[in-house]
Amino acid sequence: MVNKKKTNVDRKDTVKWTERWDDLFVDALVLQQSMGNRIDKNFTTKAYDNTVKELREKIGKPFEKGHLKNRLKTLKHNFHECYDIFKDMNGFTWSPETKMWNAKPEVWKALIKAKPDAIKWMTTPISNYNKLLLLFAKRRENAKGLKMDAHRGSASGNEGLCDDINQVMSQNEITLNLEDLNGMNGGTNQLPPPVESNSQSDSRPPSQSATSLKGKKRKAPRDEFERNIYQKKKDVFEREFESIREAILDVAQAIREGNVIAERGRPRVYTEQEVFTELVKIGVDVHLRYKAYTFLVANAGRVRAFFGCPAEERKELLLHMMHSPPEES
Asked: How far is CA 45 from CA 32, 51, 66, in A?
């Protein structure tokens, strides 16, 4: 009886979300955030109450606050995955029509080689990514910033590699050279001589002529041997440093050229913050502002058309687009 009752409760609390429900839920969250019903990273009780009421009216389902919190966790988790993978990645665009990440095959191949988890997003859509940016991007950056402060001094991911390459490019040389290696050896080009044991079997001091003769016989071969060892090690170090230097310069050049090509073919992308700020700037009434905001950010083409219009005519264009009948596909 206990197990059966628990199963019934679980089924009652389980809600299978549809894409339309997600759209309405995310729009409601954006509205609540713009109204100030969010403190730091947490939505207030008022925000949840308003959203529950709105979803019940529009969808006709008995939503509860717990349903919204659980769905919000899922949306945030999916966004964080995409954001951490695709942020600052040239060659990738998110399509509001297909809800998918788009890139050339060779670009996908390079990304998956560096980040194997990215293969999931070749076939998995993520809806409302442009609005999720408005909800979670700033807080994600703050959280990652705190994490980096806690682990300052350790390089990670693409940033560490790029920083190393940029530093090499700015210096245009390997700063650690053979003089540094020599300095580590006390400023001398010779290896430290081996320690020889002193024999005390003969208590009689040798004559000066005998000592000088023996020293001359041993010194010349040992000096020659040490010079040969040092020269061989020096040659190895020079070859290794030159190979490393050339490899890093080649990678840096390839990355720089790739970035230039990607930037040339990349259209200007306006953020949700820029859209909302512009609506306020051109004087859209408060009661119409939220509707105009969601209307624009739902379609990247509308945003481009809006900002492509002269500033003094944007308000009139916006009203014209909002009251025009939808285009037939």
From this structure: 11, 10, 12
